[in-house]
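Work Package 3 (structural annotation) set out to generate three-dimensional models for the target panel prioritized at the project kickoff. During this period the team completed the workflow that converts sequence records into discrete structure tokens, so that structures can be stored uniformly alongside our sequence database. As a representative example, we reproduce one entry of 584 residues exactly as it appears in the project archive.
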Amino acid sequence: MRVSNQLLGLMLGSILSQVVFADDWATYGNGLDNQRFSSLKEVNRTNVEKLQLAWKFDSGMKASFQTSPIKVGDYLYISTPFNHVVALDAGTGEQVWRYEHPKPKKKSCCGPANRGVAVAKGKVFQATIDGQLIALDQTTGELVWQNKVEDLELSVQESIDGLLQGMDLGEDAKITGGTSHSFNMAPQVYKDMVIVGSTGAGYGLHLDTEKGLRVVGIGDGRTGLRGFLSAFDMETGKELWRWYSVDGEHWVGDWQETTTSGLTLNRDIPAEKTAAQRFKHSWKLGGGSIWTTPAIDEETGWLFAGTGNPAPNMDSSTRPGDNLHTSSIVAIDSKNGELKWSFQQVPHDRWGYDVSSPPVLFETVVADKTVKAVGQAGKTGWFYVLNRETGELLFKSDPFVPQNNLFADPTEEGVTIAPGIAGGSNWSPVSLNPDKQQVYIAGIHMPATYYRKPLKLNAELPWQTYSYFEFDETQRYGTLTAINLNTGQVNWQKKTRLPMLGGTLATAGGLVFSGEGDGEFFAVDETNGEKLWSYKQSYGVNAPAVSYSHNGRQYIAVAAGGNKIAGYPTGDSLLVFSLPRSAK
């Protein structure tokens, strides 16, 4: 009977996987709107203090573990670092099946982390760090089809021996990452499509030095790729359309001297225009990664995605212009990949301000009128709220992290900027309670000093400077912030020990769940941010939590695997919590 019940649960789950049920968590954001809100309230403010570990699953892959579990029917589906996929019994954690992805032949640009799978129509979909989109049988985990989305061998990564001639970065500098196509995001499923985006298009040269992490920007004109978003047929894996973040010489834009809200970008527009003809083909390697899962408006069929920084990262000498449509929120027609509108948060981005936290859809009230909106927690430290139909900026919130010298021009002596390249908010998804009209944001305060240094060799090169930053490790901390979705005002904010990386979960029980890099997983009261419960273990909790119900019992699940780049202890645990039966 166990086998037949298992098969029945999987088959029913495959049929219903695109419908939002309170018992399930069937898509990355628990709905195509990416709100990450659970209507379950068995666990609530009055009893959360009794929450306890129900079961734990160790994947065996100790590395940055960023998966957001998918729960459909009786089963959880998770991805691990290096793209293994596991199906688990949602009530006990017993492994049902496991798919092991072949070890990549080439090192990934951006590390081994994967942010989750998608489940629909009897298949489990995953985008892999080695450039593949795979479909697994939901019942058995067997490979149904595999499509090479992008050939990673075409990527040209930066090297110390080549590009860094004349640069003084220390004798012990080691490369830990560089520009290269890869895929880290959880796919989005919609109608008969699987939608994924490429990462690493403008990642830049990441170095481990005696002074910590450095990301080097150099306008060499050889490295950099074009980020893209693609849709694939669920049944066959055939690509249906592809939208490139940058697609022509018109990417120079309107030569914006300020942001949309009027802040100066400290650009030398005459110098850029002088260089424009010489570098008119720079768009071909222009960057614009798609780091996280898009939201979809089912009424219009439009999807909303954030794009990454332009390439070369930070050093802009060989990419004059606004560099459309990088560092932007974009609306794309899911039927054909047509761009409907684009809102550029940072034209001519020189600070690594990717639009990386997933966009979220909701309704807000402006001038006593209800407006369909899309919001996004920026690396700049504001929550941006746009008209979903037009892309018009309705408002940006009060800052949710400290801001200092924002958009300052890097100098040879160095200028300290907050937020730095880490954010603001990084890839971490927000959550929101639509009834309370509040959004909950995991924030990062980690100022960075930006430098622009002259090259010491070869005056004939088209670039004569390079840029990099150094983090100020003495000032770093995190913030957990509740923001009003109608006014942009901060309702409450709590300071955390470490920069927040992993995201939030909101529930109808009046709770917000999140975690710290030192291993603490906690719940706070959504009305004031007061901590009501916590659980401490050894690995950093740097992934977004989910909530689901199984056999009438509510569970909270979160991956604990840390983050190597941030220095948070890495591990391989999926932690699943519930109330003891006597407390229900």
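Residues 2-16 form the longest helix (15 residues).
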